[in-house]
């Protein structure tokens, strides 16, 4: 695909996106319904999603990745994943073994979050830069209270 046709493809895709999601006054076509609180089904889905952090350096090359691993998806093992990463990124074979071990270790050590403590107050640091203005704040947030809505707080 040439650069011009690729640029046109991207432009058409963005135009279609905007047409689909916005009306002529640039308002959302329909309001989205955000659920506050957690359903048991949603908790079960997130309980099986494991955050994986990979940071390996060897022979002046570094591979760094953050990803989410679905424990319910058996179609790809850590070894298969590491082999694909090494091929796609043209890495030394050393990385294959280390990536597979890193994934395996983090999957074995993962403990799902269970909110059985009730109130769970956490400090959250907010640091936003808009042009030349830097806004910093720290808030206390009860992550154990499912009625807390970050969208409502931000509004």
Q: Can you walk through the features of this model?
A:
With 155 residues, the protein is an alpha+beta fold. Among the domains are: 40-109, no CATH class; 121-154, no CATH class. The protein has five helices and four strands, in the order ααββααββα. Strands 1-2 form a two-stranded antiparallel ribbon. It has a two-stranded antiparallel ribbon with strand order 3-4. Strand 1 and strand 2 form a beta hairpin. Helix 3 runs antiparallel to helix 4. It is extended, with a radius of gyration of 22 Å.
The overall strand count is: 4
The pLDDT mean sits at 77
Share of helical residues: 25-40%
Instruction: Give, in spatial order, the strands making up the sheet with the most strands.
Output: 1-2
Low-confidence stretches: 20-36
How far apart are the first and last residues' alpha carbons, in Å?
43 Å
Global Rg: 22 Å
Q: Pairing-aware structural class of the strands and helices? A: alpha+beta
Which percent band covers the strand fraction? 25-35%
Largest sheet: 2 strands, antiparallel
Number of helices: 5
Secondary-structure element order, N to C: HHEEHHEEH
Gross morphology:
extended
